[in-house]
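Protocol step 6 of 9: fold each sequence in the batch and record its structure tokens directly after the sequence line. For illustration, a two-sequence batch is reproduced in full.

Sequence one:
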Amino acid sequence: MWGLTPAHLVILLIIILVIVGPGKLPSTGAAIGKALRGFKDAMEDNDTNQAAAPQQPAAPVPPAQYPPVQAAPAQYPPVQAAPIYPAPVAAPPTLPQQPPVPPAPTAEPPAQG
């Protein structure tokens, strides 16, 4: 059953109880059961209707033409050839140079003496 273990089912029931609430749980369960029963009955009715309906023979297929008729090729406007090499691209703008940041002063360890 889809790989569900009893632990999964218990967790699922707890989540449903939290969402629906204990007061509405019986009416919700009855509504779901009624919907599933209606679906099952409709599926069984469909099966019995298909079994009782007479099968109509398929329409005969006309014989194939020999040689097969080929469609004329589509007429498209002529395509211009693309250039061999792309046009040169301008260099991207450069950012102005900023002065270097001086290194942060470091604390020297105290001299041992």
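Sequence two, same batch, same settings:
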Amino acid sequence: MKTRHKIFLFTLICHLAFTTNSWAGFEESHAAYTKGDYTTAFNGYLEAANSGDNRAYGKVAALYLYGRGTAKDYTKAYIWFGIAKESKDKYAARFQETAASMLTREQIDKAEVALGKKREQLGIKSE
């Protein structure tokens, strides 16, 4: 097998392994949330979101906003709703505004900087 083919095959296998794992993590988290196990749901959604699963962005943000499975954190909710908004979540902008209403102007400015870093970490380009 040529080196180029080996590299392609290796890349494909890695992609499938990580994508499947993210998908499973999201599904398991959703099942935990449905059962009321918010801590397990939060941890799984956060892992999926940090792995780039755009379905989990708004879920993580909402759990931060309402303090389910984690402590309420309006700054982190603002950041994750910003990521969800850029991933075309149709409700994210409204909920990001809700999180922002609980923050001072200075906190929002710091959250915007953190949002930029999270966007970069996830490889999301700003609109």
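Proceed to step 7 once all outputs are recorded. Observation for sequence two: The chain has one domain: 3-122.
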